[in-house]
Records
---
Amino acid sequence: MEAYNESLSLDKAFYAQDIAGSIAWARANKAVGILTANELQEIEGGLQKVQNEWENNLFNIKPGIDEDIHTANERRLGEVIDQAMPGTANAGKAIAGKLHTGRSRNDQIATDLVKKDLTSLLQVIVSRAETEINITMPGYTHLQRAQPVRWSHWLLSYGFFFAADFKRLKNVIKDLNYCPLGSGALSGNVFGVDRKAIGEELGFEGLCWNSMNAVSDRDFLLATMSWGSMFMGHVSRIAMDLCIYSSQESGFVKLADAYSTGSSLMPQKKNPDALELLRGKSGQMHGLLSGFTSTMNSLPSCYNKDMQEGTSAILSTTTLLTTSIKILTGVLSTLSVSPTNMLKALEPSMLATELADYLVKKGVPFRETHHISGRVVALAEEKGKGMDELSIAEFQGVDGRFGDDVKGCFDHEAAVEKRTAKGGTAKRSVREQIAVMKVLLETGEMPAWGVGEG
C-alpha cells in the first residue's frame, strides 16, 4: 500500500518549486509570530542545502518515510538543522515541523507548473520562410493538387497555427497563475498569514479567493493538458504533410539522417520515423487529457487522493510536449528542399482557376466561368494533352470570349504573384506574414491588421 500511495517518484521533479513555496510560507509564519527570526534563518539556510542536494543528485530518499516531495523536504530539513545545531536533540525536527503550521499539502501541488516556450520552433519556420521564398510548390486540398503556392506560404500556414498556440499558452498561464497557499486543508488558515505577501513573493498574479475551491481545483492541469492536446493536433498535421512531401512519390523534401531510418529489409527506403512518432505522440497527448478528465469527473468537493494522478499526467504532458517541440524543430531546421521536384509537380490543370479569373475580367459572371474552365479541363483530358497545349481555336471552341492572350494564364509564377491580398501567397503578402511573425517573436503580441496597423 505504501508503494501504491507514494508520489515522490513523480513529484520529486518539483523540488525547487516546493522549496520556494516553503520559504515564502516560513516568512509568512514569521510575520505572524509562529516562527522566530532565528528559526526562519535556520529554515531558509537548511532548505538551500536541501535544494543543493537535489541539484547534485545527493538527496537520499527514504522509502516508507518520504511519501511525497513535501514530506521528503521537511524530513531532510529537520536533519540538516540538527546537524547545524549539535547538542540540541530533535531541535531541527521541531523547527521543520513548524513549517507545516496551518499548511496542507493539498494546496502546495497547485503551485507546480512548467511553462513551455515555442519561440525556437517559430524562429526556424520564419527563417526558412524568409530564405526560401522563391520556391513554388503545389498547394493541396483533399490531397489533390489544387493551386500553386509558395513553399514559404505553406511553412507559415503552420507557423500561424503555432503562433495561435503561443498566444493561447500565454492566456492559460495567466488564467491559472493564482496563489492557493494559505488555504489549509479546506477551511483556510487560522494564524492570519499574509496570503498576498506569499503570492507576490512567488510571482502569482492574485489569490484563489475560496479555500475549498483552491484545494479542489485541478483545472490548471486540465487547461494545460487541453492546450497540449490542441498543440499536438497541429504537430500531427504538419508531420503528416511532411510524410507525404518526403515520400518517393512527391520528393519535395528530404529528412536529415538524424530524423529518419533505413529499412531493415529494404535498403532503398528512408522512413520518416520522427514524423510518424510525432503523429503517435499526438494520440498519447489526447489520451492523457481524456484520462485525467475522467479522473476528475464526479469527484466530491475538496481534496481527494484521486487528484494525485494529476502529477503523473502533467509530468508526462510536460515531457511529451518538450520532446515533441524539440524533435519538430530539429526536423524543420535540417530537412532539405527540392525546388526542382516541386516545380515538376506544378501541372497546367492547377491553373484552371486562372482561366475563370481571366473570363471574370472580361465581365463573365464567375458562376459561368467556373463551368467554362471545367469544360476546358475536360477537353484537355479528352485530347490527352495539357491545357496549355490546346490551340487558341480549341479554347474558342469552348467559349468565344477566350482571346489570343489566353495562353498567358499558364504561368505558375505569375499566378502565384497575383495573390497579393493580405494572407495570400504572393511574395509581397508572404513577406508581410513574416513581418507579423517577427513582431510576435519580439513582443509576444500579434498585430491585428498588419505591421504598423494595430
---
Amino acid sequence: MADQDPRRPSQHFNPHELTQQFEQLLRTRRLNAFSQRARSRPTSQSSPYSSPTPSRHSSQQAPHPPPRSIHDSQNHLPSYSSLRNLPKVPSPPQDPGSLRFRNQLLSLSVGPTKYENPGLLDEALTVIPLDRIYGEAEDESQLLQAQAASMDPPQKPEWGYQDCVIRALLKWFKRTFFTFVNNPPCPACGSPTTALGMTPPTPDESARGAGRVELYKCTASECRAFERFPRYGDVWALLQTRRGRCGEWANCFSMLCRAVGGRVRWVWNAEDHAWTEVYSEQQKRWIHVDACEEAWDNPRLYTEGWGKRMSYCIAFSAEGATDVTRRYVRDASKHGLDRNRAPEEVLVWITDEIKKLRRGDSTSKEDRRRLVVEDHREEKELRGYVVRALAAGLDRITLSGQPSPAGEEQKLPERISGSQAWREARGEAGSRPPSAERPPREGH
C-alpha cells in the first residue's frame, strides 16, 4: 500500500471536538485573566478589597511577561471573546459619556412598561381578528405536532401553540394591518412628496408622543400641499394611524404580542433600527421577530443579509434590560462596530440597574428566581454563539491556510421594507454600497 502523503492531515476536522477545545481554552484564558488581575490589583486604602497591611512585595517591580513569538501571535485568538465573552465586574458610570449612555438606556427602558397598561391591552384586542389568529395558530400547531409524532423516535414539536399565535399575528400585522412609510403621499391629490426637513410638533402631536415631525411637500405643480408626518411614540396613536417605519412597527407589534399573552422585548439598535423578541416556552429562549420583514427567528438577518454593521443591541422589557448584541453580531470583526459609548463593565452595571428597577418589590420571589435562571440560560446561549463562530471560522480553514471550498455560508435575504433607494442610502441593501444621500431616520 502506498505511503500516506505527509502533507495531508491524517484525519478530518471534528467540529464538535474543536468546539470543546475552544471552550476549554476560553475557560483557561478567563482564569488566567482573573489571576493576573488579582496579582496586579493596587493595595490602597480607598479600595474595599485592599489589605490594611501593605505587602512586602508591593515595592518590587512586576516581572515583564516573556515576549510573544511569531508562532504564538499567529495562533492568537481574535479579541472578540475578550470584549464580549469574558465575565465583567459591574462598574458604575463616572465619565460624562457613560452617564449620558446610562440616561439614554434608562429612558428607553420605560417604553415597554407601557405594554402592561390594561386599558391599552383591551383596546389592542379590539383591533386584532382573534378568531382568525387563533384559528391559524391551531392549524399550524396541530401540523407541527403531527410532524413531530411521525418522526422515529417521536420528537418534541419545534414550536408551541403560543409561538404559533405570535407567528399568525406577525403575518396579519405585516400583510394587512400596518403600512411602511417612505415619503407619505400628498393628502390633497395623492401625488408623491419630497422631504423638507423637520418641524416642531403641535401640542396635540406632542401629547401623543411625537417628539419630532417630518415635513413633506407635494411634487405636483398645481397642488404644492404640505404633509406632516409625526413620529408617534404613543401606541394608542399608532393603533389609529397604523403606519410608520421600524420604530413604530416594533412598538405597535410588541404591544399586540403582549395583548395576546406573549412575553415581549423591544430591541433597540444604536444604528437606527428596532425589532421585537418574544419568549418561547417551548424552546426556553428569546426569539427574534421583525414585523417589518415578517422575519421569525432569524437574528443573523441584519448583518449577513442586509450587510449592516452594528455596535449595540439592547433588549428592553417590563422585566429589565439585556445586552443581546452577541445574538445578532456573530462575527464582530466583519459586522461589528466600536462599542465606545461606555466601558463594558459600565454597560453591565446599567443593565443590572434596570433589572433591579423593574424587578422590584412588586415581583414575587418565585418570579425573581425564575428570571435569574432565565438570565443564566441566556448568557450561556450568547457565549455559545461566540464559541461556535470561532470554531466555524477555523473549520473553514485547512492546515495549509487556504479557505475550504466546503465552507459556503447560507445566503440570507436582503431587506424588503422601504424603497430601494432608501435601503441603499442606509447601507442596508445587502452587497450594494451605501448611498451618499442621508435618508430619514426610522426612529425609536
---
Amino acid sequence: MGAKIFALPYELLSTILEAAASSNARSIQNYTYGVDTTSNGKGQRILRGQVAPDALRWLSADAIRHVNRQWHDWAVQYALRDLYIRRWRGSERWIQSRGLDTVHANPLKDVVYRDPYCSLKKTLDLFTNYPALAKSIRRIFFDGFYGVETGLMIFRILQKCDSLDTVSLPWTMLRYGSEEDWAELLRRRGNGTALSSLELLAVDLKQSQTTDCARQVDRKPLNSAKVDFGQLKRIKLPGTSNLMPINDDDLVSISRTARLHELHITGTTAITTKGLVALTRTSRNTLGVIEHSPLSDDGFNHPDAVSAGDGRHLCEEVVNCTHLSSLAISLPTICRDLFSDMSIEWTGDVQIRAAGVCGFGSLKDTSDAQHAFCNILCQTRSLIQVQKKKDIDLNIEIFIDHLIFEPAKSLVHADLSIGELLSAGSWPSWQEPSSKGPYGQTGQYGKDEQAYSCISENEFVEGLQKGYVTF
C-alpha cells in the first residue's frame, strides 16, 4: 500500500489503525505476574491479575505512535479515551536472588513502600504539564479515593478534561466538592460538549475512617442553584456506605434540574421510594431505562413506603414513564392497574419485584389478593399482545418472593420440591427444568437452594388451592 495510506480519509484511516491496535492487543501479555516461594524454598511465578484496560490500549498503540505526527495524535486519543485511576493496595517485599531457583524462603522484612495515591498525583501532574493529553479523555474512572484531599485532586483533573463524556466517582465527591466544582463539572463547555453520564460508587469504609473528624465534611453543593444536572442523560448510584451515604434528600435536589434518560439505583439501603419518585417524576418524558434494586434481607422484600408522600403511588409514577425500553424495579407492592393502560409504549425487558398487591399487602393470607394478582397477569398478557400487534417486542417478568412469573408464556418458575412431597408426587402433572432461580437469571448461589422448575399458571393455581405451594 506504501505511501497511499497517508492519503486516505481520516475516518477510513482511523478504522484501519483501530483494527491494527486490536490485533496488537491480542499479541501482548494480558496478565501480570509475581514471584512466590514454594515449600522447598524455590521461587515460582504466580499469576497476579489482568493488565488494566487503559494500559493495554496504550501498549497496543505504541508502535503506531512512532510513525508520524498524525498517527501519533490518533494513537494518543485511542489510548487515553478511557482512563482508570486506582488507589494502589497491597504490599510487596524485596528478595535477594539472581534467578527463581535460588529465591530465599524468607524474603527481607522491609516492605516495598508505594504511595497509594501515586497514580492520582502523577495523572494530575501529567495533565497540568501537558493539557492537550487531557482533551483526549472521554471516560474516566476513579476508584479507592475517599479522602478530602484526594477529592480536591480529582476535581482538578476533571477540570482539565474538556471532552469528558462519562465519569465514575466515589460518592464522597458529592460531600467534599464545592458548588463551583460541581457546576464546572456539569456545565456545557465552549466546544459544545457536556458530561452525559455520572456514576457515584459507594462502599463501606473502615471504622477508623468513618469516625475520623476530617472526613465528616459536607459542603452541600446540591443546595446551590449553580449546580445544574440538566445536561446529564444517565445517573448510576451503585452500592451503599456507612459514611454520609447518598439519600433521598440528595435525589430530590438533583431532580430539580435533571431530565434523565437512564436511572440506575442498585445495592443501596439509604435511598427509598421517595428519592426514586422524585427523579422519575421530573424525567418521566425522557426516561427510557429504570433500574432500581435496593438491598434487603433476601433480595425480594423491600420495606419501603408504598406512597411517594403525597398520596401518589410509585406504580403510578412508573406508568407515567411511557417510553421505557428497559425496566427493572423493586416495589413494596404492585398496583392492580399497573398494566391496564394499553396506550403505553413500553419496549424491551420489564422485571418487577414486589411483595404483594397494593391495598391487600401480602399475597399469602387472602384469596382476594391472590385473585387481584391473577388479574394483573391477565392484564400483562393483554399489554404484551397489544405491543406485539405493533411489532414491538415486550417481555415482562414479575418476581413475588421466591416465585418468578412469565405471563407471556403463562409459566411460573419456582422450587416445587415441597409441593411434590405434600402431594405424594401427584402434583404437578407437568413440569420442566428452569434456567431461572431465586436470584433471577443468575440462577443459584450454590448454597442450599433447590433447582427451579417451571409449571403452567393453571398448575400453580391448582397447587395454591390445595396448599401444595404458597406465595
---
Amino acid sequence: MPPAKRRRLNKKPTKVSLPPQKPTLFDLFDYQYQYPIFESICSLLPIGDLISLTRTCKRLSSLYQTLLPTQWNIDRRLHRFVKDPKGLRSQIGAHDALISGSFVIQFFERVTWKESDLDIFIEQGPGALALEKYFCEQEGYGFSYESPREEYDGAIIHIAKAILSGFYTTLVVNVVTWNTAYALYPQPSFLYHKTYLLRPLTDYLGETLAKYDTRGWKSQDVLWPEDEASHGSMLNRRRLGDRLTWKIPLDVRGVDRPDKPDSVLEYSCWKLTRRLADRRDDTETDFHYYSAEAQEFKAVTLGYRYTFHSYSDSFWLDFVGPRMDRMTLLELYKVPVSSRSQHISDTMERRSWGLRNLGNELARCNIRLPSYDHEIPGWWAEWEKQKASKDKKSK
C-alpha cells in the first residue's frame, strides 16, 4: 500500500491589530525619547522630589546624574553677568576666589532673581588686582570704591572664617569654586527651606529675613530641642566637602586648572556653637543664634593654611600637629647649620609649637622646606578610621 501523501496547508498569517499602548508615568521620565517633556517636568520638581524618584526603581536611579549638566549649569547662570563664564572661572581658580551669596542659592534652587547680583570673595592683594583688571579689560566692567572694602583674614582656606562670619544666616553659606559648587547646609536650606541665624537679631537682619521669607524660606533663631534629633548633625564639627555637604562637580572643559589642590578647601573645618544674645535687665525673652568657630592652622611644612573648629579639634591639633612638628624638625636638620639663624636653631632645640611659626624667619634666611599638603586627605582617612575604632570600643 503506497504511503499517504502529506497535505500541505498554505495558511496565511492572520494580521492582529493591537490598540495603541497608553504612555505610563515612567515614559514621561524617559529622557531618551521624551526629553523635552522630561526636562520641563524635572525643572519644576524640588530637589527632594527628584531624590525620592531616584529611589523608586532602577529605571530612575540615574535621574539626578542625568539632570546635572542641564539643571545645574553654572556657565549658563554666569552668562547673566559675564560674556565668558569659562574665562571667569579660570580667573577664579588662578586667584583663589570664591563665588558666594544669593547667586549660589539660585544655582542650587534652580531659580533666578532678576534683582540679584554676583558676589565674588577674594583676598586683597595681587590676585584681587588681577581679577579687577580682568573684569575691566575683558568684561567691560568699571569699579568704584564709594564704600570701604570689606577685609577678611586669609584667602580661600578661610572659607569658614570669611564666608561663615560674613553672612547672617545658614541659607547663604554656600560657595562655588572654579570646578565645584558646595552647599554647606543643604538639608535645612533646600529640602525644608529653613534658615537659622548666624548673628544676633537686628533690624538689618530682619530686613534680610523678610526678603527670603517672600522667596520661600522660613527663618528660626536656632533648632528647637525636638528638631535636634533629626537635624542635630549640622551642629557637629564639619569639614567642607564632608558627607553633609551637597557637592556638585562642574563641567571644567575649557577652564584652566589652578595649581592649588581642592583638598586645601575641602579639609578646612568649622563648627556652629549656640550663643545667647546679650540680655538686658529689662528683657524677659532669651534669644539665641549660632556662631561659627574656625581657627587658623598653619605649619612651615604645609604650603597652604587650613582651619580647625576649636582648640579641642583632635584632628588638626592632636593628629596632624605633632606630625607636622616632627616633619619640620626633620627637614630643618637637613638644612646646613651655617644656613640657619640662631632663632631657628633655638626653636629646634626647644622642639616647641614655635616650629609651626618659623615661616617669616625661614623666608629671611632664604630656606624653603618641602610641603606635605598632599598627605592631608590620607591622614584624615586614617584619623577617622582610628576615631571610629575608639568610639566602637567605648560603647
